[in-house]
Amino acid sequence: MNTNAFSLRHIGPREADQSQMLKTIGVDSLDQLIYETLPDGIRLKQPLNLDAPMTEYEYLTHIHELSKKNKIFKSYIGLGYHPTILPAVIQRNVLENPGWYTAYTPYQAEIAQGRLEALLNFQTMITDLTGMEIANASLLDESTAAAEAMSLLFAVRTREQKKNGVNKFFVSDAILPQSLALLQSRSNPIGIELVIGDETTFDFSSEFFGAILQYPGKDGLVSDIKTFIEKANAADIKVAVAADILSLVKLEAPGKFGAHVVVGTTQRFGIPMGYGGPHAAYFATKEAYKRDLPGRIIGVTKDMNGNRALRMALQTREQHIKRDKATSNICTAQVLLAVMAGMYAVYHGPKGLQFIANSIHDKASALSEALKAIGFKQKNDTFFDTLNIEADAEKIKPLAEAKEINFFYPHVDAVTISINETTSLSDINDIISVFAEAEKTEPIVLDAISESNNINENLQRTTEFLTSDVFNTHHSETELMRYIKMLERKDLSLNHSMISLGSCTMKLNAASEMLPLSYANWGTIHPFVPIEQAQGYQTVLKALEDQLTEITGFAATSLQPNSGAQGEYAGLMVIKAYHESRGDHHRNICLIPSSAHGTNPASAVMAGMKVVVTKSTVEGNIDVDDLREKAELHKDNLSCLMVTYPSTHGVYESAIKEITQIIHDNGGQVYMDGANMNAQVGLTNPGNIGADVCHLNLHKTFAIPHGGGGPGVGPICVAKQLVRFLPGNPIIKTGGEQAISAISAAPFGSSLVCLISYGYIKMLGAQGLVDSTKAAILNANYIKSRLQGSFETLYSGECGRAAHEMIVDCRPFKANGIEVTDIAKRLIDYGFHAPTVSFPVAGTLMIEPTESESKHEMDRFCDALISIKKEIDTATKDEPNNVLKNAPHTLDMLTANSWDLPYTREEAAYPIDYVKTNKFWPTVRRVDDAFGDRNLICTCAPIEDYM
Predict the structure, then answer these.
(1) Cα torsion through 178, 183, 188, 190, rounded to 10
(2) Distances (CA, A) of 432 to 220, 349, 372, 452
(3) Hey, which of 347, 602, 776, 781 has its CA 20 to 30 A from 57?
């Protein structure tokens, strides 16, 4: 056994196990299975051109050496990104803990109560600080959240405004430049006209439906948003405020002034800058807009026993229901980062946050006075942490960089300085010395920082915040450690058992891939530092782009999109730009198969396209005749086809090349959804099947953990003709020669977690990647064979094989009174997270084991399902009081004095012997979703208050 080979550690089945599995499937070799699964016409003829694989030890040495190429300067750049102090107790117990980072999105609420409570804390923190009525469980970044705010306000225009076609949206020129870029990206395709200007001279015309302000502004000035909002509300103009979350400790909540939406980032709450991400954005609004609120909301409900329980509420999967009518294509969050930011507030509490905010403000005020004393003008008369100094930027910049200090230089005669949580008295004196040297004068040396207040009286915070017990209890490390562990124990993650979610690829997130995320040389880089200060990052990101370009068979890659939904949108916008560059502005028809992910049609509408759905055959494949008919019908206006390969039904469609050719023959481009890329890597690729652009879910195929529902990364890879349109950034040069406007806030998206995918590819190498894909196909077909006779697979390839996932049909069990949800909940009693339920076909389970699961674990899972099938066989419609309908069973039930159910406690808790050795207990019984949606509660107050 070659103990140096990372692939040996990543791939689950041992060599002897593989032989037994192949025998069960009924093939002589793995190559025969792949031949029978994958159409021969799309197989790659040459191996991937990648570096030889590194051992885990070699990789960790390599990534540590690369980190030294990053220059760690003191950062006062601001613009929404600040150095922070991540409490070690949160770093060790959340960020570095697989119990938190390997968990899946909490669709199965009964085994996700810990994450759900942590997210409820986050939502409560946001509603308290913003003064709004409801908040979601985080968004991708501040700029994306600002764009979503604009879209929401457009959707909730008054009837009169819609009737009159009111479409103007005012943007304060004090907004962050990256947020302005996102607003420009998102506005035009959906018919919004942006008007950028000085908020103090805005005329509140009836031509406007909404406005957005920055609080404080990009240069640090705290403007009078109270007066602006009052005038806007009087004119029926709804206002969004992009607010610095830490400043809201000292500044009055925008909700108190009548704002309709408040957005921002929680990066300041202990999250490393990481060269741009990932960070949890926030989005808070009025309860009246709850059904237009993008992303996820965590709500309070009750379980079957009437006990308090949490779950995801309302439009959690609205894309799959509303499709092209969805208000947003965002179906993810930044859960791991939101949990960390929420824990930061739990740990520090309201008084701790006040201490931090006061300390920052006092240091900024002391610096302001010192710089004025040596002759500089400080233009912000009211500010929180950022000074705007009149100075010769060309003179200051080299002096500052010589002392390893970064300021921001908005133009030639201005320097802005943003003070942060890490800034010390010594740092303040260093800053003063830079300006003194520029003036050739003696620096003032401060020996203490005194209390001060440079905030207008009518904008100072008077309302209480974080009054809930959770924010006033866990302030010692011992208490917080135990609280985090208590929540962790309520959640089932990959460190318990396999999570066989179809289309979600819950594979190993190797420790060696994760460790570098804690290195300071990767975490403390601001995304807008000069490129020469981030050479470690530049080396890794360029190498990762090249790796992904090679794997996909395309010409170039952009890492900017920071989720799969962002990748979809970016890919479509690049296609749109390509058509427009050729004068084909009219090409706006997007063909989407009926089996596609719900985010596909939502993304197409956001990109300004019209969706035309194509049919599927009874075998679950794209109906080629229907596709051809619709492509030819719309050939003059055809923009693109969105296709998932292998299909969402878990099949490699043999007609894929014919399908892509039909689109090209009719003037369109082909966008391939990369959700199922785990079944392609090294065997085929999007370029080879005829696609022009694809997005990749790095949090699926390329080993970034799901983190309980985020972070995600969704880069796009494009063919030669689309390279010049890859997305740019307003501050750091990136993208193509004719770059579309930015898709995400940071130039390279969530750079920090891109280290994981870089390491994954580096350690597997070309052969390891191919072996992983083959093992994923082997594992899926093994489960398919083991379940045969108990559960029938709905769709198969021409030789009866599954791809890397399969859909099993649970609809026949309705005759016994059993729904697919009952099976999902009963699996919890067996210690497993359910596969994907009722997607893409209602009444089914979509199972994907990934390559990382061993034969032993898959046998446990299959044994559980086969045992459940026997339980189904004994169930009847007439007697719903059975072990499936009552699942899952909690420890409270099993230890209660009374037991009046028609089966034994042992049958409920230990239906199969192996459960006894490693029992996972759900903490609540089956949750009541309908009750929760009728009684929407999204903050920490106890449910009794609302009943």
Answers:
(1) 140
(2) 18, 33, 10, 18
(3) 776
CB 704 within 8 A of CB 753: yes
> CB count, 10 Å around CB of 867?
16
Query: In whole angstroms, how far apart are CA 527 and each of 530, 718, 770, 897?
Result: 9, 24, 34, 59
User: Helix axis angle, 751-787 relative to 30-37, nearest 10°?
Assistant: 100
pLDDT at residue 324, rounded to an integer? 61
- d(CA 142, CA 483) in angstroms, rounded, equals 29
CA distance 651 to 795: 7
The CA dihedral of 593, 597, 600, 602, to the nearest 10 degrees, is: 120
- Answer whether 676's CB lies under 8 Å from 803's CB: yes
Burial group, residue 436, by CB count within 10 angstroms (0-12, 13-18, 19+): buried
Tokens of 421: 């949580």
Residue corresponding to tokens 């996102």: 182
The number of helix segments (H) and strand segments (E) in the chain equals 30, 25
Residues of the chain scoring pLDDT < 70: 314-327, 934-936, 938-947
Name which of 568, 555, 540 is nearest 754 in CA terms: 540
**What is the Rg, in whole angstroms, of the alpha carbon atoms belonging to the chain?**
28
pLDDT for position 321: 57
In 3D space, the residue among 80, 450, 485, 496 whose CA is nearest the CA of residue 281 turns out to be 80
Beta strands in 452-602 (DSSP E): 556-558, 589-593
Instruction: Give CA–CA dist 577/693, Å, rounded.
Output: 13
Q: How far apart are CA 84 and CA 856, in angstroms?
A: 44
pLDDT for res 496: 96
- Specify the pLDDT at position 164: 97
- Tell the burial category of 664 from Cβ atoms under 10 Å away from its Cβ (0-12, 13-18, 19+): middle
In the chain, the amino acid numbered 500 is S
CA–centroid distance for 466 within its chain: 26
Alpha helices in 235-379 (DSSP H): 318-322, 335-373
d(CA 415, CA 728): 24
DSSP type of residue 51 = P
Give the Cα separation of 497 and 506 in Å (integer).
11
Cα separation, 199 vs 225, in Å, equals: 9
pLDDT at site 68: 98
CA distance 929 to 323: 21
Crossing angle between the packed helical segments 15-25 and 751-787, to the nearest 10 degrees: 50
CB 94 within 8 A of CB 339: yes
The answer to whether 672 and 649 are in contact (CB under 8 A) is no
- How far is the CA of 754 from the CAs of 367, 430, 757, in angstroms? 37, 34, 5
Query: Which of 261, 254, 198 has the alpha carbon at shortest distance from 226?
Result: 254
Cβ–Cβ under 8 Å, residues 140 and 744? yes
